[in-house]
């Protein structure tokens, strides 16, 4: 940039993108100074090097804003893990299913692991049955990304969220509080 350019002659490009021809470096710097702009080396490896007259600060700011916008559009997907046992009770299973549902609604992938202990590993069909049950319960929220697979003493299945997750039923979302709140508002209005 400006005085740091070491080439004797350069191909000069104006701020509007017009080619001004091959010029001596001092002459190119004088033209940039007259316009109160910077002389920036664009292609150092070409012969002669290509330089452009521009406002370097504005260009740097514009590129940073474009990078920030690209980062905002980027989607980060986390992989959450839930661990189960093959002899899990119904209430515990429902609790774990609720966690998986919450993760899928949040847009995260879920790695469901069934841990076998002792002789339980001789019955992998129980673990697969449990994983399939979970997948069918949550088929409207997510899909199976990797099928249940026995890996040593663990069976692993990965679920990923579907593109559009249906909204939770309103009664479930407010925990049934909607009616109570409504009745309190109407009783307050009567007073």
Automatic annotation (TrEMBL):
Subcellular location: Cytoplasm
Domain Translation initiation factor 3 C-terminal: 77-162
Biological processes annotated in GO: ribosome disassembly
Tagged with keyword Protein transport: no
Biased composition (Basic and acidic residues): 161-183
InterPro entries referenced in this protein's UniProt entry, alphabetically: T_IF-3_C_sf (IPR036788), T_IF-3_N_sf (IPR036787), Translation_initiation_fac_3 (IPR001288), Translation_initiation_fac_3_C (IPR019815), Translation_initiation_fac_3_N (IPR019814)
Domain of life: Bacteria
SUPFAM superfamilies listed in its UniProt record: Translation initiation factor IF3, C-terminal domain (SSF55200), Translation initiation factor IF3, N-terminal domain (SSF54364)
Record's GO cellular component terms: cytosol; membrane
One Pfam family named in its UniProt record: IF3_C
Gene3D superfamilies: Translation initiation factor 3 (IF-3), C-terminal domain, Translation initiation factor 3 (IF-3), N-terminal domain
UniProt domain Translation initiation factor 3 N-terminal: residue ranges: 1-69
Signal peptide as annotated in the record: none
Similarity section: Belongs to the IF-3 family.
NCBIfam families per UniProt: infC
Self-association state and partner proteins as the record states: Monomer.
Cited PANTHER family: TRANSLATION INITIATION FACTOR IF-3, TRANSLATION INITIATION FACTOR IF-3, MITOCHONDRIAL
Name recorded for this polypeptide: Translation initiation factor IF-3
Record organism: Rubrobacter marinus
């Amino acid at each position: 940039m400006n005085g740091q350019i070491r080439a004797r002659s350069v191909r000069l490009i104006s701020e509007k993108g017009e080619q001004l021809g091959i010029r001596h470096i001092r002459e190119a710097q004088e033209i940039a100074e007259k316009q109160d702009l910077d002389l920036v080396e664009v292609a150092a490896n070409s012969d002669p090097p290509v330089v452009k007259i521009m406002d370097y600060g504005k260009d740097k700011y514009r590129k940073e804003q474009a990078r920030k916008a690209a980062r905002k559009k980027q989607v980060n997907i986390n992989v959450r893990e839930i661990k189960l046992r093959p002899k899990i009770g119904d209430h515990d299973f429902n609790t774990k299913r609720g966690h998986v549902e919450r993760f899928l609604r949040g847009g995260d992938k879920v790695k469901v692991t069934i841990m076998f202990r002792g002789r339980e590993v001789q019955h992998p069909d129980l673990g697969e049955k449990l994983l399939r049950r979970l997948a069918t319960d949550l088929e409207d929220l997510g899909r199976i990304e990797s099928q249940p697979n026995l890996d040593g003493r663990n069976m692993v299945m990965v679920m990923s969220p579907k593109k559009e997750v249906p909204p939770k039923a309103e009664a479930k979302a407010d925990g049934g509080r909607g009616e109570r709140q409504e009745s309190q508002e109407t009783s307050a209005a009567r007073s």
